[in-house]
Amino acid sequence: MLELEQLSFFGQKPYSTINTIQYLGSKRELLHWIVPFIEEQTQVDDVIIDLFAGTGSLGYALKHRNTIFSNDVQTYSYIINKALLQELNYSDIESIQSTYRTYYDHNFNWLYSRISSLIEKEDSYLKNDDLSLYEEYNEWCEKTPFRFSKFELYPQNEFYPLQKLIDEVDKLKADFNLMYTTYYSNAYFGIRQCMQIDSLRYAIEYMPTELKNIAFTALMSAMSFSVTSTTHFAQFLKVKNEKNYINVKSKRNRDIYLLFWDKFHYLLKELKNNNTSNNHKVFNKDFKEVLLDKSVKNSDISLIYADPPYFKEHYSRYYHLIESLVIYDYPELTFNPRINTVTVGRYPKDRIISDFGKKSYAPLAFKELAKLSSELGAELFISYSDNSIVDLSSIVKVCSKYYSKVEVKELQHKHSKQGRKESCTVLEYLIMCN
Three-class SS of residue 232? Predict the structure, then answer.
């Protein structure tokens, strides 16, 4: 049975929220609408699975009320959710920054010693108020070598120090972090910013286990708010005119080191104030693996909340830079035969592609979701929208095969358009199966 109800909300948000990274499809702004329905269908201390957790906003809102089993196939999401749902007992907060500055400096100073001339050149563009330099700066960025670029440089070329670093990556990476500096300089970030990211990543390895996930989340956040892009990492901006130059300079003048520590202390404070000892679990698996996991099947699961991908633009494309950050594997990049070089966005060769993002596979994925959820004896709530690749009636039809009652709640919501000022109004659905 299908029941459609339109709702609107003008009150205050009554649920705990936390600011991590800028994230497409985040339900952070819809918690006031979604959470009450979950509360109506569950009891305090019931186990809830957040099956496609993303940045963990739902789990964080409910972590004091319920036991959360959080899952996402992307490793960066697993790290964020581990940070948000862990019990925090670390007390020596004040000395952290000074302690790990030594590790940061070790990596950063070594990189600086190799390519200091390029940092000086970069500063001449980013600290200059002369907007007529935009074409010169754009050309300079375009000429910046990176791993897998096809041109060779000679000693007299100003980029030769960076090229030498690139040529020696495999020999040097055991002792120093240099992935971002050799992959993304003058692309998603400025050269100095890439050195900062590499060096912060180096320092994080020496942090106590309890703090590592929080530190990773803080670094992802600093990157998210500094990237030379819109609000994601799908493709970097180029300096096509004076307006672009102002925007790029603004972002590349941001000090990622300082942003990281600001975010790190913010997260520590928020997590300390919202600490919990509930027996939360965090998984890093495909949704089917989680629903078939023995520890899940042996638990009394009350409700499964599913917020699967809506579109063909996969999260592994939009967030490949922070996936690579946590894995730090110096990936092979996807080759584009049309332009006879790697893809413009410099995407890793082996990226996760969700069946929910493929029009031909998505209906079967919804069928598997409904079937496995019903076999666990759990209610199933699905978030979706009217501009997605599977129509509402098809999802309801599939769910009705496995659940006796299917209700659909509907809310008008404004979606931003990937960082642009304008937004579009969509209908958000909450498909409730019980």
Answer: coil
Give residue-wise pLDDT tens across range 114-164: 999 999 999 999 999 999 999 999 999 999 999 999 877 888 899 999 999
Q: What is the pLDDT of residues 378-409, one digit of tens each?
A: 999 999 999 899 999 999 999 999 999 999 99
Q: Which two tokens stand for residue 92?
A: 């020596």
Give the CA distances from residue 72 to residues 37, 56, 232, 415, in Å, rounded to whole numbers and listed in that order.
22, 9, 18, 22
What is the spatial distance between Cα 22 and Cα 168, in angstroms, rounded to a whole number? 34
User: E strands along 103-194, which residues?
Assistant: none
Q: How many CB atoms lie within 10 A of CB 412?
A: 12
Can you tell me the distance from the alpha carbon of 247 to that of 213, in angstroms, rounded to the nearest whole number? Answer: 31
Dihedral of CA atoms 84, 90, 91, 95 in degrees, nearest 10, equals: -90
Please tell me which residue, 286 or 92, carries the higher pLDDT value.
Answer: 286
Q: Which domains does the chain have, with CATH numbers?
A: 2-87+276-314+354-433 (3.40.50.150), 96-270 (no CATH)
User: Exposed/middle/buried for 196, CB within 10 Å: 0-12, 13-18, 19+?
Assistant: buried
pTM above 0.85, yes or no: yes
Question: 85 near 61, Cβ under 8 Å?
Answer: no
The dihedral built from the CA positions of residue 70, 76, 80 and 83, taken in this order, carries a sign that is positive
For 235, which DSSP code? S
Number of other residues whose CB lies within 10 A of the CB of residue 325: 23
